[in-house]
Amino acid sequence: MLNEKIEFPEIIQGTIGYKFQNWATTYSCEPELYFEPTSVEEIRQILELAKQRNKRVKVVGCGHSPSDIACSDHYLIQLNKLNRILQVDRERKQVTAEAGMMLSDLNEELATLGLALSNIGAVSDVTLGGVIGTGTHNTGIQHGILATQVVTMTLMTAAGDTLECSDTVNREIFQAARLHLGSLGVVLNVTIQCVSAFKIHLQQFPKTLTEVLNDLDTHLQQSEYFRFFWFPHTDKVTVLYADHTDKPVKTSSSWLWNYAIGYYLLEFLLWISAFFPRLVPWINRFFYWLLYSAKVEQVKRSDKAFNFDCLFKQHVSDWAVPIKQTRTALEQLKDWLDNNPNVQAHFPVEVRFVRADDILLSPCYKQDSCYVNIIMYRPYGKEVPRETYWAIYEEIMKKNGGRPHWAKAHSYLRQDFEKIYPAFHKFCSIREELDPSGMFLNSYLEKTFF
Question: What is the pLDDT confidence band of residue 13, given thresholds at 50, 70 and 90?
Fold first, then answer.
């Protein structure tokens, strides 16, 4: 019977017949049992039950990862009922929240406190525990991946023990847990460093890829949250500056109207182009002209400025190359696409910049990095051929010392990670110590660690 509740000894309730599907509807699973615990004690009981029955456990957030990293055929836990702010330290501007709290809710709570996160990703419909699990990032060479804002974390290990870690307590575990892949335990709560609430001045203006790459250092110094969109099969680029401001909130209604209309038209045109691939370069040029060729200025609350709407389903791959390889990697990708006009490459290629850190499995471990994010839309759910584009892109990223985003499409296995992550074996030893029986493994993690 679908979605039937099964009660176990004491207070555990598990559901059978539950189907998990990620946001992009590209991966799904049907766990043997699905749980929504309401307390730390219930989590402990679920782990004890899993141990008794020799089952694996996977904790899932909102399912925004475009990969099978959150899938499991055994037990699946969602922490959506553990979603409260637990403590606020106004003097230090630090907030402790349960791991199941969505960033969209946290952003609103922080706003009422006069606080904000210094940087967040393009999507806030993600959980606090999940967003640090795979290395979510935004842009700004002064800023690290989102997990660098984490001050302390509390985990529940496979043994049911609670473990606090920070820069001063269990420091090596902390270096691993801030990008945990769901493999170290269940994240219970997170203390995150905030800043005073602020607004962002957004500026959008056109350039060419050659111009941006020639002046890259200037752009990185000119804007705190600099990024750019490159339109494949062209040399056209939209530069986006984002910086703190005291100006009043201001949005461009005409641009927003064009944006809304344009993207619904885009889905229809991309569906047609799936049958006529040579249309894609023309579509890219048209939408550059429609939405991104004009100068636009807006002022928004910080989290609203960082977030972008994902209007329809997509495949995504995102690799971080050492920042010194930015020009080479992008020029190689552009040259290949220019020589292969029949290959479908949807816009935009999003290019962002992130500061180095000491998180063991961070793509930015010990190196300032440039993330090159490619995208293939799925108009009306239709799969568009991407295998050739994906393979060449990945080959170029590899040649330039790239490391793949953990939540997104890549083909790397353990032998590859051993070569590109100096601290990979250190992470593995910590994982094996905290979870010797492999309770928190799944097929994705088996390919990573074995």
Answer: confident
